[in-house]
Amino acid sequence: MYHKEVTQSHINTASKQLGFTLTPHSISKVQEWTEHLDSLLLENGEIDPSQRPNSLLPEEIRWITNERKLCKLDFHYVSTRYFKVIDEAKNPVLFTFRIPQQIMLEIWSEHELNRWPIELIQLKARQLGASTLTELAIAHRVFFHPYTYAVVASSDPAKSYEMSQMFEFVYDQLPWWLKPERTKYNNGSLMEFAGIHSKISIQHGNKMSGIARGSTPSVVHLTELPDFESPEELVDASLMPAIHPNPKTFLILESTANGFGNWWYLSWKQARRKWPIGRSRLRPVFLPWYTAPDIKPTPTWRLQHKHLLENWEPSLIALKHRERAHHYVHNESPILEQLLGKDWTLSDEQLLW
After folding, report:
1. Same structural domain for residues 147 and 272?
2. Which residues does 183 contact at the CB level (< 8 Å), separation at least 6?
3. Quick check: is 88 in a domain?
4. Residue 58 lies in a domain
5. Which end of the chain has fewer surrounding CB within 10 Å, N or C?
6. CB under 8 Å to 95, separation ≥6 — which residues?
7. Residues 19 and 124 in one domain
């Protein structure tokens, strides 16, 4: 669902089973058909999502079948055609990949191609869209893949509630013919789809339950881990031994840098040291701030401060930072070099910011 070759192989197999070739469509074509199928539910000028058309034409059935199957098999397709998010201007928009999110997708693709579990410990700068992409990937698995049990949690109830609202929004924005039926729902804590035996449980780090007890999740996203109560017990002693790695495992432990010598700091350092020699279960992933040149700085900031660049000379500390960033991209992160370019260096504009 992540790697192009793996996805295409599954699409070819599904096409043979269905008796017709699954065909991806452009965003405009998807919007056109979505509007058409929505019009079948119009009642007094408004869409009634509780209703279903009495009958569908053969071409309408073919379209729905094509899109349902493609959405299940191809995460990139469903996320860029059907998943909506709230942008910086607080408007609902179709999701598009930023560079940090492309980095994450490349890593997931590598693991899928090698039939490795996706088990990452992710250190990141803020506002790169890392959590957004992870939540979309979880929504994809729960909404489209049967027998998925997902647990997501942030450090406190308010932050976990925000995470739950993303799942709610993505689900609400799906066309009626793509939504699984939601059979159990507790606002901010649970979404269940009994027809496909899938569910999402939203918890928080100060009161976790259900992990390693009864039905163990195969999909987990824990964020802001330095602020969790007893992460040693929750993650090391309870969660990790309960999840048996397999190609369908999706486990993301994530946070910004927060504290020195604490559990998160030591766990990251250990993974960083041991992954290259095959002695860490968790793959360390670092997403630095400069991988998001579209928002760090924003276009508004660029416009407001461009005059400062005319006579600006970077300090020694700034130049050292540029040097370290250059070394990291070109010597320690092949994926970053691939996406940023072999000639990349930190620009004066980003350095000034």
Report:
1. yes
2. 192, 193, 194, 195
3. no
4. yes
5. C
6. 79, 80, 83, 84, 85, 132, 136
7. no
Rounded distance between C-alpha atoms, residue 183 and residue 191, angstroms? 8
Supply 324's token pair. 């370290």
In total, how many domains does the chain have? 3
Measure the CA–CA gap between 272 and 77, rounded to whole angstroms.
Answer: 32
* Residues 221 and 335 occupy one common structural domain: no
Single out the residue in 291, 309, 324 at which a domain terminates: 291
CATH code at 242? 3.40.50.300
- Residue type, position 240, single letter: M
Q: What is the pLDDT of residues 124-136, one digit of tens each?
A: 999 899 999 999 9
HSE of 239, CA atoms in CB hemisphere, 13 A: 28
- Name the pTM for this structure: 0.93
